[in-house]
Specification:
Its EC number is 6.3.5.1. The chain has 545 residues and is α/β, with parallel strands linked by helices. Helices cover 38% and strands 20% of the residues. The chain has 2 domains: 2-260, Carbon-nitrogen hydrolase (Nitrilase/N-carbamoyl-D-aminoacid amidohydrolase); 265-462, 3-Layer(aba) Sandwich (Rossmann fold), CATH 3.40.50.620.
Length: 545
C-alpha cells in the first residue's frame, strides 16, 4: 500500500483564526484533489499563527478555537488532517496537534517539551503534555510530536513504545544562519534511535523579527534525508510512503525531490526579503521609504526592499548636507536608477540652520561636538517620518548590528523607522551580502562596496575614526554577544589588545538603552538584539570585575 502525505508549508497571519482556518480548509481540499494525498500535515499552532504570544491570554481564545475546530470537522472530508492549535483541557492550556477525519477528532496530542529560552516562552502559556499521541491512518500507527519534542529523546521513544511506525513532527522552528544544518543532524539522530521515518513539517513566513523558512523534509529509519521542500516558499509538498507488512521497517518513504541547499549569503538574503515582505504586507503599509546615503548599508537595504515588495512601492530619499560628498550623491542616484525606484533629493541645510538658530541661545558658551552632528541625523529622521505620515509608507532604517551593538547611531535620527533588515547583520556580512546580491543582477555600484564607510556628519569622517576596523570589531562582538564570552575569555584568544576589548564591551553595555528604542528587525543569528538578548538598561555590572 502507498500512503501519500502532503506537508503544508504555509504562511499564516498571527491572530486571524478565522482566515487561518479557511486556509487550512483550502489547503486540505487542494492536497486531496490535486496532490491525491491521504494525509495533510500542518505546522505547530497553525490556527493562531506563530508565535501568538499574549494573544493566548485573551479571554475569547477558547471560544474562537472551538469554533475553528467545529468548522474544520464540518467542512473537511476524505483526507486526514493533522493540525496544530492551542486548546484548554480541564482548565489547562496545551499546545496541541489534532487529527481530524470524516467529522471526528480522532486523537489530540499535547506538546511535552516546552522551550523557555532565547525566543521561546512556552512555559508562560502552556502546560506540559504527558501522553503519547498515536493514531491509526490506513493501517499505519502514526505517532505525533510537536517541535521541541523532537529535540529530546523521550517523546519519540514514548511514541515508539506505544507502537508508532511513523512519526509526524509539527514545527514552528525559527530561522537563524546555522539552523538548517542543525535540524538535519537532529533528525538523523532521532530516526536512528527509534528506527522510524520522520516527517518534519515546518512553518513558513515571518512574524515581526522572527522568520520561518520552511524547508520541511523527511528522513527514513536510517536517518537519511530523502526529500526536502524548498526554503522560503509556501506550498504543499508531498511524499509517498510504501507500507509493507513483510519488511522490518513497515513504512518506507520513497525518495523524492531534494531542494538545493542555499549558501550562507543566499539564505540570509532570502530571510531578510521574507521578513520585510511579511512585515509590510501583514501590517498593510502602502510601501517603503528610506534614506539613501550613497553608503553600503542603505544600498543593501534598498535592494532588499525592492526584492521584497517591488520597485513601484519603494521611494529613496537623498538628504545631502555640507559634508555629503559628490561621490555619495552620484552613487545614491545610480543605486536608485539601477533598482528603478522613485528617487528624490531633499537638501537639509536650511532645516539644520533653522534648528541651530533656534538653539543658539541654549548652546552659547558650549563648544561644537557630536550634538551638531546628531542634529543632521535627526533632521533626516524628521523628514523621513513626515513623508511616512503623509504617504502611508513605512520608514526602513538602515543600521547594521555592528553599529547597534556599540551605539554608533543617533536616537531619533538614523534610528527612526518601523523596521530594519540589517538589525542582526554584522558589517562584515553586509559587504558579503552586497557581493551576493550583485550576482543576481548588478544593483550596488562597486565603489559603494569598496570605499571606506562613513557617516559623513563631519569633514573627512570615516567609521574607523571612532571604531576598530570592522574585522576586529565584529569578531569581538560575535564572541561577546552570540557566545556570551567574558572579556578575559576573549583576551585569552590573544587576537586583540586589552584596551580594544574593554572599550568594545563597555560600548555594548552602555548602549542597551538605544537598542531598546530601535525598531524591530529580522533575526539572522542565534543571538539577535530583541527577543534573544534581554539585559537591564540600569545596572551596576562592570566589565573586568
Amino acid at each position: 500500500m502507498t500512503l501519500r502525505i502532503a506537508m503544508a508549508q504555509l504562511d499564516m497571519l498571527v491572530g486571524d483564526i478565522t482566515k487561518n482556518t479557511q486556509s487550512v480548509i483550502d489547503a486540505a481540499n487542494k492536497a486531496r484533489d490535486e496532490e491525491c494525498a491521504d494525509v495533510v500535515v500542518f505546522p505547530e499552532l497553525t490556527l493562531t499563527g506563530y508565535p501568538p504570544e499574549d494573544l493566548l491570554l485573551r479571554s475569547s481564545l477558547d471560544t474562537r478555537i472551538e469554533s475553528s475546530l467545529a468548522k474544520l470537522l464540518a467542512e473537511i472530508h476524505d483526507i486526514y488532517v493533522v493540525v496544530g492549535y492551542p486548546r484548554r483541557i480541564d482548565g489547562e492550556l496545551f499546545n496541541c496537534a489534532g487529527v481530524i477525519y470524516q467529522g471526528q477528532l480522532l486523537v489530540e496530542y499535547a506538546k511535552q517539551k516546552l522551550p523557555n529560552f532565547l525566543v521561546f516562552d512556552d512555559k508562560r502559556y502552556f502546560s506540559e503534555g504527558r501522553e503519547a499521541g498515536l493514531v491509526d491512518i490506513k493501517g499505519v500507527k502514526v505517532g505525533l510530536s510537536i517541535c521541541e519534542d523532537i529535540w529530546h529523546p523521550e517523546p519519540i521513544a514514548q511514541a515508539k513504545a506505544a507502537g508508532a511506525e511513523l512519526i509526524l513532527n509539527l514545527n514552528a522552528s525559527p530561522y537563524h544562519i546555522e539552523k538548517m544544518g542543525e535540524r538535519e543532524e537532529l533528525l538523523h539522530q532521532r530516526a536512528t534511535e527509534v528506527t522510524l521515518p520522520i516527517v518534519y513539517v515546518n512553518y513558513m513566513g515571518a512574524q515581526d523579527e522572527l522568520v520561518y523558512e520552511g524547508g520541511s523534509f523527511v528522513v527514513n529509519a536510517k536517518g537519511e534525508k530523502i526529500m526536502q521542500a524548498p526554503w522560503f516558499e509556501a506550498g504543499l509538498y508531498s511524499i509517498d510512503m510504501i507500507v509493507d507488512e513483510s519488511q522490518p521497517n513497515k513504512v518506507e518513504p520513497v525518495a523524492g525531490v531534494i531542494a538545493p541547499a542555499l549558501g550562507v549569503e543566499a539564505n540570509v538574503y532570502q530571510a531578510m526579503v521574507l521578513g520585510l515582505r511579511d512585515y509590510i504586507t501583514k501590517n498593510r503599509f502602502k510601501g517603503i521609504v528610506l534614506g539613501l546615503s550613497g553608503g553600503i548599508d542603505s544600498a543593501l537595504s534598498l535592494a532588499v526592499a525592492v526584492d521584497a515588495i517591488g520597485a513601484d512601492r519603494v521611494q529613496a530619499i537623498m538628504m545631502p548636507y555640507t559634508y555629503t560628498s559628490s561621490i555619495s550623491l552620484h552613487d545614491a542616484e545610480e543605486e536608485a536608477n539601477l533598482l528603478g525606484v522613485k528617487y528624490s533629493v531633499l537638501p537639509i541645510e536650511s532645516m539644520v540652520s533653522a534648528f541651530t538658530d533656534v538653539l543658539a541661545p541654549e548652546f552659547e558658551g558650549y563648544a561644537k561636538d557630536t550634538t551638531e552632528e546628531n542634529l543632521q541625523a535627526r533632521t533626516r529622521g524628521v523628514t523621513l517620518m513626515a513623508i511616512s505620515n503623509k504617504k502611508g509608507y513605512m520608514v526602513l532604517t538602515t543600521g547594521n548590528k555592528s553599529e547597534m551593538a556599540v551605539g554608533y547611531a543617533t536616537l531619533y535620527g538614523d534610528m527612526v523607522g518601523g523596521y530594519s533588515v540589517l538589525k542582526d547583520v554584522f558589517k562584515t556580512l553586509v559587504f558579503k551580502l552586497c557581493r551576493y546580491r550583485n550576482t543576481l543582477g548588478y544593483v550596488i555600484p562597486e565603489r559603494v562596496i569598496t570605499r571606506p564607510p562613513s557617516a559623513e556628519l563631519a569633514p573627512d569622517q570615516k567609521d574607523e575614526d571612532s571604531l576598530p576596523s570592522y574585522d576586529i570589531l565584529d569578531e569581538i562582538l560575535r564572541m561577546y554577544i552570540e557566545e556570551d564570552q567574558s572579556a578575559e575569555a576573549i583576551l585569552a584568544t590573544k587576537k586583540f589588545d586589552r584596551e580594544t576589548v574593554y572599550r568594545v564591551l563597555r560600548l555594548v553595555d552602555v548602549n542597551e538603552y538605544k537598542r531598546r528604542q530601535a525598531p524591530t528587525g529580522v533575526r539572522i543569528t542565534a543571538r539577535g538584539f530583541g527577543r534573544d538578548r534581554r539585559y537591564p538598561i540600569t545596572n551596576g555590572w562592570h566589565i573586568g570585575e
